[in-house]
Design brief:
The structure holds 2 protein chains of 2 kinds. In chain A, about 75% of the residues lie in helices and about 0% in strands. Chain A is an all-alpha fold. In chain A, a hairpin with a 4-residue loop joins β1 and β2. The longest helix of chain A is centred in the first third of the chain and has 31 residues. Chain A starts with a helix and ends with a helix. By secondary structure, chain B is mainly α. Chain B starts with a helix and ends with a helix. Classes of the chains: A mainly alpha, B mainly alpha. Chains A and B meet through α2, α5, α6, α7 and α11 of A and α2, α3, α4, α5 and α8 of B.
Chain lengths: ~280, ~250
């Protein structure tokens, strides 16, 4: 048995994969376990309200969740649109000398620290927004511009790679594609639905979870933004900002916030589970 | 000339935007708060994290590329697992690291807990990069290797490095750049001490968090944050361009 396991090594691999799986489940469940007190002690009407004042025992996450979702709503369409346009141009010019240069620049952009984008936004975007539209400058608009520039390269490269594999699959059929009623985008979505949905989910999670740019540019004012020029606060920025001085129930509330974010992201990622595993 | 610009005007616009963003950072360099401890600690932590996460990531990439055959449900479970971890925000990983490594396991604010947190962050990136280079390798040499009696592990750890050293180093460098780029995961785990680290249990301040503190918290730190960012951008450009130049000499394929 042992000899067979060593020789075959598929038992060992199964064991390793299952072990990694268990570690992942344990890691993701750990904030929930640590904040179990919070969910049992604090009534649900308290932590779903729009009132965040940990010193006086009100732990409403409504403001932060709304801020995160508003940021996603303003950034996601912009990033997807711009990424799609740039990737189409990249595909059209894939034999040009400019293409490898741009792909290299995009790869550098992807792994560039987000704080650099944040510093750039503080130096350039915030004064521009303040001068053109008025207000303080630290606003939803400025954050969504900065986030679009930060997230667009990821989006572009994902679309570019999946479009190239789409072209590989249907090589030589470009002319018949041109006769089709459907546009290029519709054809692409019909041929690679998994890639498109996966990209959108991934970008959603990146925007939802991005901390540093939001922390630097959003203004962190504790309110639901009434316009594009108002400051706001997101879930992740709250965790990053208040973890330094939180104690007792406040800290537990922050862990609870992290577990709410984990559950939210798991729902977003796994809502298309059937489609994902039937690749 | 105009026709060329009209055909690829968005690409030119993108290049112009990149150049304009980098141009913001080009000012006289200014250093006051940066110490050697920050730089040495950053290099040790990030390189250690990349090297520690490379082995499991390489194995799992072998599963995802189809070199190691597993039952179907395990295969799909593996890819879903990587997909979930890739979508996790870095601050959540930071909270997990803070709770588990700093508090429960008692490593405190140290290089070790930062390293362990960075492993979680790097694992999906490295798996994706490795599986992208292993999949064509398997398509090309997998069947031949099988007919010569070469097992999957030998194919993974002997033949693939021999044939595509350059690409593997590329993936590792991508991982290093990712770990240099992410701040939120380490800001809760590694502390803010700027002195030279004596052991792996010492607190350090990572370079990206140092830039954040300079820009936001330390009064008058913005010029230094700007010059450090410029150096980081140049370093990352160097990191991404050099392997492409040496690629030719390292890969036999």
């Amino acid at each position: 048995m042992l000899l067979r396991a060593v020789k075959d090594n598929s038992y060992g691999m199964k064991f390793i994969v299952l072990l990694l799986m268990l570690i992942l489940v344990f890691l993701l469940a750990y904030p929930l376990v640590s904040s179990w007190n919070f969910f049992t002690d604090i009534p649900i009407s308290n932590w779903l309200s729009f009132d965040w004042d940990p010193d006086n025992d009100s732990f409403g996450m409504g403001i932060q969740l709304t801020g995160s979702l508003l940021l996603v709503l303003t950034t996601l369409p912009l990033a997807l649109l711009m990424g799609w346009i740039i990737s189409l141009q990249l595909v059209d010019n894939r034999n040009n000398w400019l293409n490898p240069a741009i792909v290299g620049i995009l790869e550098v952009w992807i792994s560039l620290p987000s704080i650099i984008i944040g510093i750039w936004a503080i130096i350039e975007i915030i004064p521009a927004v303040r001068n053109i539209f008025g207000g303080r400058g630290y606003s939803l608009l400025a954050t969504s511009i900065g986030m679009t520039i930060f997230i667009m390269p990821t989006c572009t490269l994902l679309f570019y790679r999946s479009y190239l594999s789409h072209l590989d699959q249907y090589q030589g059929l470009e002319d018949s594609f041109q006769m089709s009623v459907l546009s290029r985008s519709e054809l692409f979505i019909k041929s690679q639905p998994t890639a498109v949905i996966g990209t959108i989910n991934y970008i959603f999670c990146r925007i939802f979870g991005e901390t540093m740019v939001v922390l630097m540019v959003s203004g962190n004012s504790l309110q639901v933004p009434h316009s594009l020029l108002a400051g706001f606060r997101t879930l992740t920025a709250t965790i990053a900002m208040e973890m330094a001085y939180a104690a007792d129930m406040h800290a537990t509330a922050l862990f609870a916030m992290a577990s709410v974010a984990i559950i939210f992201i798991l729902v977003v990622l796994l809502v298309q589970y059937k489609r994902l595993i039937n690749v | 000339m105009f026709k060329v610009i009209r055909q690829r005007w968005i690409l030119w616009l993108y290049m112009l935007m990149t150049a304009s963003i980098i141009a913001v950072f080009i000012r006289p360099l200014h250093f006051e708060y940066t110490t050697a401890g920050i730089i040495v600690g950053t290099i040790i932590t990030t390189v250690g994290a990349v090297l520690l996460s490379a082995l499991p990531a390489y194995l799992i990439a072998g599963v995802m590329a189809g070199i190691i055959r597993l039952p179907n449900w395990l295969q799909s479970l593996t890819s879903v697992m990587v997909y979930i971890l890739a979508g996790m925000p870095s601050i959540i990983l930071g909270v997990i690291g803070f709770l588990l490594f700093s508090n429960t396991l008692g490593f405190g604010w140290s290089m070790l807990s930062a390293m362990l947190t960075l492993i979680m962050l790097l694992y999906p990136t490295l798996v994706t990069a490795f599986s992208q280079l292993l999949r064509p390798f398997n398509q090309r040499y997998g069947m031949t290797a099988k007919s010569f009696g070469v097992g999957p592990l030998e194919l993974l750890f002997r033949l693939s490095p021999a044939y595509q050293k350059g690409k593997i180093i590329d993936a590792l460098i991508l991982g290093w750049a990712t770990s240099l780029g992410d701040t939120a995961a380490v800001m809760l785990t590694c502390g803010t001490l700027t002195s030279f680290p004596d052991s792996i249990f010492d607190s350090i301040r990572l370079l990206n968090y140092h830039i954040y503190l300079l820009a936001m918290d330390i009064p008058g730190g913005m010029p230094e944050a700007r010059s450090l960012s410029l150096l980081l951008i140049i370093f990352l450009l160097f990191l991404f361009i050099t392997p492409r130049l040496v690629h030719h000499y390292l890969s036999e394929d």
